[in-house]
Amino acid sequence: MSPSKTPSSTPDENETSVEGGRRRATINDIARLAGVSKKTVSRVINQSPFVRDETRERIEAVIAEWGYAPDPQARGLAFRRSFLIGMIYDNPNPQYVVNMQLGLLDGMRGSGFELVVHPCNRSSPTFLTDIRAFVERQKLYGVVLPPSVSEDERVAKLLNEIGCAYIRIASVELDKPEHMIVGHDRMGGAQAARHIVELGHKRIAFISGPESFRSSHERRGGFEDALAEAGLALAPEDIVQGAYTFESGVACGDLLLSRTPRPTAIFCGNDEMAAGVLQSARKAGLSVPQDLTVVGFDDFQIAQAVWPPLTTIHTPTREIGRIAVEKLIGGERREPRDVTKMEPNLVIRESSGPVPA
Amino acid sequence: MSPSKTPSSTPDENETSVEGGRRRATINDIARLAGVSKKTVSRVINQSPFVRDETRERIEAVIAEWGYAPDPQARGLAFRRSFLIGMIYDNPNPQYVVNMQLGLLDGMRGSGFELVVHPCNRSSPTFLTDIRAFVERQKLYGVVLPPSVSEDERVAKLLNEIGCAYIRIASVELDKPEHMIVGHDRMGGAQAARHIVELGHKRIAFISGPESFRSSHERRGGFEDALAEAGLALAPEDIVQGAYTFESGVACGDLLLSRTPRPTAIFCGNDEMAAGVLQSARKAGLSVPQDLTVVGFDDFQIAQAVWPPLTTIHTPTREIGRIAVEKLIGGERREPRDVTKMEPNLVIRESSGPVPA
DNA sequence: GGCAGGATGGAAACCGGTGTCAATCATCTC
DNA sequence: GAGATGATTGACACCGGTTTCCATCCTGCC
């Protein structure tokens, strides 16, 4: 059940290194060397104001000389809290996951925190139990929730109960500002709509992401609103539901392109599905963008790896991650502010063009 | 520098939960409830044989009833080692990174260990210092090194010095068996070659990954060896160097397809570059596989998201990750064995076909 | 029945930090 | 110059486990 054995592979003994012999310094060592009590060293480490400058400098010198860094486990034990940030997610897109991780790491660089990843399955019967065990056992300092876990009120409630700080990254405001970062998918949808309208398209279709993702609704909502501003509207049959996957994009594309008359522009809930539509169009003998305009969402790697490269909505995922962690660990050094909003923006590539003659 | 503030956002106080009041049980609670000393409870947790069955059962019952789990920090402090596994990597491919993470998590599910991710940059001046600080501060239980960090002897040496267990995942045997998992890229290269030869191709080209990746050399080596068995050889100009990226695939494709006579088959060091070649072929007005056969390597998501879907070499990344962690934490319950080898295998899709008439 | 020796259980120290609270020190006030 | 006041500092317990060392309890054996 729990870790119980000593590690199997012990390192070479034959290769004694110069450094190897020097034991890691402890707070007691530093205290002795600086001629103070360990409590005072602790004060310096924790930036307590109640230390005379002269004393502080002396201790800091010793710390620097010995390259001392406090043991996070011991510190955590005393603090009743670890210095680990959890990322709990179920987003299936590798590009999103990696970008988010990089963003989180950006935000905690040099802070002494570490990132522990925890993929999960929202439909598992042990979903909440697993999260609870994870957070409580590791005494996580805080948790970042990207979509769609972020949209699960059970998770937010659980974390509130446990008393674990968290940040939800979502399309809309779901919680108190200090717990949220809003990605503003709605605005992205609107940007896509305006681009397509400007190109002169009238017969426009939309491939939605799964119902279970809030972003699906927001992207669609923003798209429809902006269309309405231009005096256009999506008929119900112009909206088909995909699953944010490549395959679903192909299927939805097949469906839409078999219609008569067929749409001249398709806005897809994400790039994966847009790539699927490109493939569907190819099968149908259509050229993009001459016969069909395709617009994606996310601007992940795949957007540039397909042909033609996708016009899409860029979402600053990594940046969002960075800011999320900063909110989590930065604490009171930032003044309270509104919900943090990160705006997407349109990237025009080659998959969109004027309406065919 | 180091975490020093209390968390900024405190959870709601107004929503008192039923569960919230019940303090987490400690080893002392369990000992008291079971009527034994905490040392005996500790023995049960650590599976010591020196506990009478009756006593053990009683203690286990109390543990189960209270859902007790020992505090990893306290335990780690006493063990002088944490229960964290580090993944130190510099592989730029999100699909690889995510698959590897999932594999590692598969292998540690239910073990009480957690995964801490640590991307790095091999050419950074603080590369080794960073790793050392990470491993030593967190007192990592073990580290998994995927390519190309796995191929860096400085890292292996450092970890040996520190005395941290590690597993290297690489194309070839670089270390003692217990420290290695070999991906056998050479075999994959050979499989690609045999497939291409069977289709009747003679004018064959190869796009290599970057020099700095061992897998580049192995994939190429296996490919050339199997070609040689069929009496074929790659001329130096048929080998061009890419960078494992989509863009480099486009560039290398442009170069190769502008030749006269041009190759009828191109084997690419990975799927990304193969996708790039597909795009290059499209620009050149060539149909795949009618005019050109393209074979990739890895079988990541992109292989199925492009058109036509790529014939490629599937590498069991997730499985490799699982086994790596099991070696790391499974320890002495596994008998010493040879270097673990994970074999790739050919997946035939639609990007390969018989040589054009 | 007495004794050697293995099986069990417990007290106390320790891992490396932090919280509490009292003691010490330097000024300041009158 | 004495007491007051607030800034500094340190002694000691504690976080939740493990290890060391020793006491006790059974056994089997003679």
Beta strands of chain A, count: 12
The CATH superfamily of the largest domain in chain A bears the name Response regulator
Strand content range of chain A? 5-15%
Tell the overall outline of chain A: elongated
Biggest sheet statistics of chain A: 6 strands, parallel
- What is the top-level CATH class of the largest domain in chain A? Alpha Beta
Oligomer class: homodimer
- Largest chain interface and its two residue counts? A-B, 89 and 90 residues
Protein described:
2 copies of one chain form a homodimer. The first copy, chain A, has helices at residues 27-34, 38-45, 53-66, 72-79, 94-108, 127-138, 153-162, 185-198, 214-229, 246-257, 271-283, 302-305, 317-330, and strands spanning 84-89, 114-119, 142-145, 165-170, 180-182, 204-208, 239-241, 265-268, 293-295, 312-314, 340-341, 345-347. Chain A has 13 helices and 12 strands. Mean pLDDT of chain A is 90; it is low at 4-20. Chain A has 3 domains: 24-70, lambda repressor-like DNA-binding domains (434 Repressor (Amino-terminal Domain)), CATH 1.10.260.40; 79-183 and 318-342, Response regulator (Rossmann fold), CATH 3.40.50; 185-315, Response regulator (Rossmann fold, 3-Layer(aba) Sandwich). Chains A and B meet through helix 4, helix 5, strand 2, helix 6 and helix 7 of A and helix 4, helix 5, strand 2, helix 6 and helix 7 of B. Chain B binds a DNA duplex (30 and 30 nucleotides) through helix 2 and helix 4.
